[in-house]
Amino acid sequence: MKQSDVVSDNHITVLVHIADTTRQQRDYEVDGRDYHFVASREQMERDIQNHLFIEAGQYNGNLYGTSVSSVVEVAEQASYCCQTS
User: Fold this and answer.
1) Of 19, 23, 39, 48, whose Cβ has the fewest other Cβ atoms within 10 Å?
2) Which value, to the nearest 10 degrees, does the dihedral of the CA atoms of residues 61, 2, 29, 65 take?
């Protein structure tokens, strides 16, 4: 979670979860900070079928999604979880 993604005011903390993707990692990106880079499309498709994602979609031939575990991780640290697109 990037520090810039944390908003805190009046005892309410909002954190932004980190999305999963099958897209190739770019040189400047850090796994677990910018995205969770999934090892294979097949693995992410299995995880989607096993209901491990709250939402998922395809863009430019790559899968992107919000995993249940990423939201749980944020919920354990903050009052609210925010999704951006």
Assistant:
1) 39
2) -20
Distances (CA, A) of 12 to 3, 37, 62, 74: 16, 30, 34, 13
pTM: 0.79
Taking a C-beta distance cutoff of 8 angstroms, is the pair 81, 15 a contact?
yes
74: left (phi over 0), alpha (psi -120 to 50) or beta: alpha
3-state secondary structure the chain: CCHHHEEEECCEEEEECCCEECCCCCCCCCECCCEEECCCHHHHHHHHHCCCEEEEEEECCEEEEEEHHHHHHHHHHCCEEECCC
Length of the chain: 85
